[in-house]
Amino acid sequence: MPYDLQPTYDRLIFELGSPGRVGYSLPEPDVPVEPALEAIPARYRRATPPALPEVSELDVVRHYSRLSQMNYGVDTHFYPLGSCTMKYNPRVHETAARLPGFARVHPLVPESLAQGVLALMHELAGMLAEIAGMDAVSLQPAAGAQGELAGVLMIRAYHEARGERRTKVLVPDSAHGTNPASTAIAGYQVIEVRSDANGEVDLGDLERHLGPDVAAFMITVPNTLGNFEPRIVEIVELCHSRGVQVYMDGANLNAILGITRPGDLGFDVCHFNLHKTFTTPHGGGGPGAGPVGVKAHLEPFLPVPVVVKRGDRYALDWDRPKSIGKLQAFWGNVGMLVRAYAYILTMGPEGLRRVSEHAVLNANYVLARLAPYYDVAAPGPCMHECVLSARRQKKHGVSAMDIAKRLLDLGFYAPSTYFPLIVEEALMIEPTETESKETLDAFCEAMIRIAREAEETPEVVRAAPVTTPVRRLDQARAAREPDLRWRPPARG
Amino acid sequence: MRYLPNTPDDVRAMLEVIGVRAVEDLLTRIPPKARLSRPLQLPAAMAEPDLLRHLRALAARNADADGYVCFLGGGAYDHHVPAAIDHLIARGEFFTAYTPYQPEASQGTLRTIYEYQTMIAELYGMDVANASIYDGASSLAEAALMAHAVTGRREVVLAAGVHPLYRRVTATYGAGAGLVLREAPAPEGVLDLDAARRLVGPATAALVVQSPNFYGCLEDVAAAAEIAHAADALLVVVSDPVNLGVLEAPGRLGADLVVGEGQGLGVPLSYGGPYLGTFAARQAFVRRLPGRLVGATVDVDGRRGFVLTLQTREQHIRRARATSNICTNVALCALMATIYLALLGKAGLRRVGELSTAKAHYAAARLSEIPGVSLRFAAPFFKEFTLRLPRAPARVVARLARERILGGVPLGAFDRRLRDCLLVAVTEKRTREEIDRFAEALARAVR
Q1: Cβ contact (<8 Å) for A106 and B72?
Q2: A454, A446, A357, A358: which is closest to A408 by C-alpha?
Q3: Do A232 and B34 touch (CB under 8 A)?
Q4: Which of B320, B394, B409 is closest, CB to CB, to A180?
Q5: Would you give the distance in Å from CA A4 to the centre of its chain?
Q6: Are residues A342 and A361 both part of a single domain?
Q7: Least CA distance to B338: which residue of chain A?
């Protein structure tokens, strides 16, 4: 059933309200205002007031409530978005992060007045290090891509400290786009390494590229086809034998908690997406948090400051002369760190392992049920996600995108489509462990129905969605004539 | 385990469909030598009541801005957060949604981002704003990289009044591209324009000023723009948008790029994050912007709708040649700011600015009456100012804390030359009574 049967709401906040209407409540001045304004030179004062809305509090509450109803979220829909780990976001975490002792603490309070939050950060860094088998963790990166940048910059600093000049970083062609993008910002030339048909690293191609000018190899484990790279230990050893550092993109960590650890596999660096594996909400695109873990030889290069424990006191350590520097103004996305910390404490060691086992079970169940109806990108068993191809449906003129849109009509968010790039018409499905068998069954029934529709009534699939607040949108027009802000209609 | 719904019966039924006997049989690709042979060494699982008790105990060990009177600034401010914001952003349809890559199922998020872009562009007096960057510092770093990409030049001249931690982040981001950062001095608290003129030249990609700057002083942005433009460099302005109900929009003073920290627009202090990096530009740069953009378009039935657009700039399409590596941004914080600006509106934002600057000026006058205490700089300020103290600022701050006052940020850690200085911020929330109490406590603390 469509989520919202009411007539489509089509307002922007600027199209509501009336001049003079207000939605705020602020105290009357208890000190003189005019002398202060006069102390500011006239040329620094705003000449024309900003054109902001003039609406009541109810106008605002109703408008944003109505807009929210035009979204699919994990709370309202199954969200099998591969590579994004759209698991349930526990509500107790929201309560915890809103405690005034976390939410209302200024970042520049004296350390002696922030011992609780510093203790939490120190413990969380230790727990993440244990989960990943790393020696040290920085909580500062704001998201996975910033964690990648930090990791690659640490590798760069490490080589430079050894007097080595290496200019290239190898990245598989199946990688997330952030891997090459972060690597390029860090000043490296990015070289793509081929994957074989199963999405595994083409060892011959890797070896060919492993020259003395290579600084690092960056790889996602399990890989972006949802498979564990069976030769990963050999790959890491091969890289190390050439003086190449190995970076693990931790986007898929949800598959291996308590089962295997990046550090034990030999990785030198890995980042964590707390908004994936550790349940912090995606928020419609962020905020996230992307802590980065390293082995001891990279520890001197961690971003400053590092949260340290001295005796029974916690402190921010700035005295780290080899540090790569800073990534954001303050210490990390603490609001997200509180949520991740609460999650790890809730699950405990056995619980975390069961998270991964059930994530793998759920993905394989979906794979098994859908394999008769869709091409499978790589043979199973998969880990926490599976990649299908709509090759077969394409012959009937139904693309992966059409299937994704049709799912919206049938009450599900869509899988990731057209990623990884090496799979034709890719549909990447990550159910996560927080979904029940009944939900997976309902999703599989919908997918099977679409496969049938693709053969019998492909026009139905191509016309989808028809139940959403808007139907397919003209992307080309949006890019050709960018309309990126509202402007008042011309009078006339 | 309340987050894991599958029962043993479910698991059995699923394994049967898959055709294996145990979950373990699904993990055979992981080489045995790579398996963890022991349980993770983590604390045992906690039930919800125990977890909350533990977290409350940790929270109680921090000085929050409810239990203390907060005069701290330096890039994060205790502005009032209207109650409606949290109720709205707590709607699961917003906070449990992903990046709006399926626009038909994400019109709520897309519309709020379009509204956000409109509001930020309007406040800054710029043509376009993006959907957000992580925080003010990383926004500035992205602006520096963009100026380098646009001009093909490598030097960035930063006024000494630009937040020192922002400068540090810019240096980190700029290392790969080989950016050379030069500091233009501000001996009197504001940029020395003659020195800036000498530093800005044919190798300069951008001149960066912050106004009000880190010390609280207002910079002459228009004069900085002239200097930058005379050398065909960009002027990048760091600007806190919450001040712009009263202060002039940087875009009207000649800025080419405007970035800032939007935390003051309804985002909780949260010990430093997540915050909201704002980023706005002139139209000419729209295809060079970092980060996501939402644009208006129509659907197949001609109805208005919104999509992520100009995505060929972004990492998931352009990969190593993307304008930035940013993927996850801070959409929910941008939503907080959007709701904040909708609630405050034209009149409310002006009121926030007027009250903040009025109280700051009142506080500056009261505090600098204390013997030995004086304003460090004579330049005009807005809601924040630098005091010179007759005693070590860190000691003074510790004494004030005993009276539950967070008196300011000692500046010695940021600049040795200012080791006798305290940075004091005053928002619209501070009352005359609190400021008077602060003045009395400070008088005792420096005696």
Answers
A1: yes
A2: A446
A3: yes
A4: B320
A5: 27
A6: no
A7: A13
Of A346, A363, A385, which closes a domain? A346
Q: Does residue A314 sit in the same domain as residue A390?
A: no
Whether A20 is covered by a domain: the verdict is yes
Query: Does some domain include residue A487?
Result: no
Are A359 and A337 found together in one domain? no
The string of pLDDT tens digits covering residues B279-312 is 999 999 999 999 999 999 999 999 999 999 999 8
Region B393-416: what's the mean pLDDT? Answer: 97
Is there a contact between A27 and B326 if contact means CB atoms under 8 Å apart? Answer: no
Where chain A has pLDDT below 50, the residues are 1-5
Shared domain check, A328 and A200:
yes
Residues of A in contact with B271 (CB under 8 A): 102, 105-107, 114, 117, 330-331, 334
| C-alpha radius of gyration, chain A, whole number | 25
Quick count: other Cβ atoms within 10 Å of Cβ B202? 9
Q: Does B283 touch chain A (CB under 8 A)?
A: no
User: In this predicted model, what pLDDT tens digit does every residue of B373-398 receive, in sequence order?
Assistant: 999 999 999 999 999 999 999 999 99
Comparing CA positions, the residue from A274, A292, A269 lying closest to residue A334 is A274
How far does the CA of residue B199 sit from the closest CA of chain A (Å)? Answer: 24
Q: What's residue B254's pLDDT?
A: 98
| pLDDT at res. A2 | 46
Does B266 have pLDDT greater than 60?
A: yes
What does the pLDDT look like over B213-236, one tens digit per residue? 999 999 999 999 999 999 999 999
- Is the CB of A412 inside 8 Å of chain B's CB atoms? no
* CA A113 to mean position of chain CA atoms: 32
Percentage of chain B with pLDDT > 90? 97
- Which residue in the block uniquely carries the two structure tokens 């990884």? A420
Residue type for position A9? Y
Residues A356 and A338 in one domain: no
Whether chain B has a CB inside 8 Å of the CB on A370: the answer is no
* Cα–Cα distance, A209 to B405 (Å, whole number): 60
Q: In whole numbers, what is the pLDDT of chain B averaged over residues? A: 97
A101 in B contact zone (CB under 8 Å): yes
Instruction: Give the domains, in start order, of chain B with CATH numbers.
Output: 69-81+345-445 (3.90.1150.10), 84-338 (3.40.640.10)
pLDDT at A3: 47
How far apart, in Å, do the first and last CA atoms of chain B sit? 59
Does one domain contain both A114 and A214?
yes
Number of compact structural domains in chain A: 3
**A154 and A290 fall within a common domain:** yes
Disruptive mutation site among B1, B89, B270 for chain A (greatest number of A CBs within 10 Å): B270
Q: Tokens 């996600």 belong to which residue?
A: A385
Asked whether residue A235 is assigned to any structural domain, the reply reads yes
Which structural domain, as residue segments, surrounds residue A402?
351-477
Q: What angle, 0 to 180 degrees and rounded to 10, lies between the N-to-C axes of helices A437-456 and B8-18? A: 30
pTM of the entire predicted model: 0.98
Domain end among A294, A325, A346 = A346
Whether residue A180 and residue B165 make contact (CB cut-off 8 A), yes or no, is no
CATH code of residue A127: 3.40.640.10
Q: Is pLDDT above 80 for B263?
A: yes
